[in-house]
Write a structure and sequence with these properties.
245 residues, six-stranded parallel beta sheet, 41% helix, globular
Length: 245
């Protein structure tokens, strides 16, 4: 996408192309306020809206949000049902805003465990926004980094078996092209909320040289100012990718 003059006090060419966020702390945010955990998830939707729109204004190429990990299915059924309801509702209610902000939506993660009615609404939004040229909003749903690598190996193995690919030609580029994120740049900046210092099985291949920024704020409190703080910090770092400055 074409970058406009930055709204931040940093040069546009210093902005991250791809920001990934582990949206953590919804339940803790609610419990600290004496509210049910699902209320934290409800409030977290507003943070998603603020963050996607701000990334669009700033000219960020891609924003990947860790919505539901493959391990989150261990949570109580009531909470999972509510999360699926929120996702379905978001896909329906945000379509006009997605068009208004020229956002392109895509999904990564295994589809088979997601309820069909949720997938239907998600697919409608993905198809509707496919030709948009602004920020790509990549939703990681029922996603796990290890599962993604397993699926990529299976795809590559099938091509080798069917004589569509010579095994000796397999390199990093071939592997990357068979990941769920094929076609997207690797994240430049990974943000994690709620003060946790874990990767949590998120984009394991893609974040080899990603800069990590952690905030104590829980996801429902994440706002435009916090996003800008993370980006400003990112622009001060020297990225050597294993080399020397």
């Amino acid at each position: 996408m074409t970058r406009l003059p930055s709204l931040l006090d940093v040069p546009p060419d210093r902005l991250p192309r791809h920001i990934a966020i582990i949206m953590d702390g919804n339940g803790r945010w609610a419990q600290r306020r004496g509210l049910p955990r699902i209320e934290g998830h409800r409030r977290g939707v507003a943070s998603v809206r603020r963050t996607t729109e701000e990334c669009s204004r700033l000219g960020i190429d891609c924003l990947t949000l860790y919505c539901l990990s493959s391990e989150n299915w261990k949570r109580p059924r009531e909470e999972l049902d509510f999360l699926m309801h929120l996702l379905e509702q978001y896909m329906i209610e945000e379509r006009s805003a997605i068009l208004e902000h020229n956002l392109c939506v895509r999904m990564i993660g295994r589809r088979h465990e997601i309820p069909s009615q949720v997938l239907n609404e998600l697919d409608k939004t993905v198809q509707m926004s496919a030709r948009n040229t602004g920020t790509t909003i990549c939703l990681a749903i029922n996603y796990g980094g290890r599962a993604e690598l397993v699926d990529a190996v299976r795809r590559i193995g099938k091509k080798v078996r069917d004589n569509q690919l010579d095994w000796s030609h397999i390199d990093e580029e071939i592997i990357a092209s068979h990941l769920d994120t094929a076609g997207l740049p690797d994240p430049d900046l990974l943000i994690r909320t709620a003060g946790e210092m874990r990767i949590s099985n998120f984009l394991l291949w893609q974040i080899s040289y990603t800069e990590i920024w952690v905030t104590e704020k829980c996801w429902p409190d994440f706002d435009e100012a916090t996003l800008r703080e993370a980006i400003r910090d990112f622009t001060t770092r020297q990225r050597r990718f294993g080399g020397l400055t």
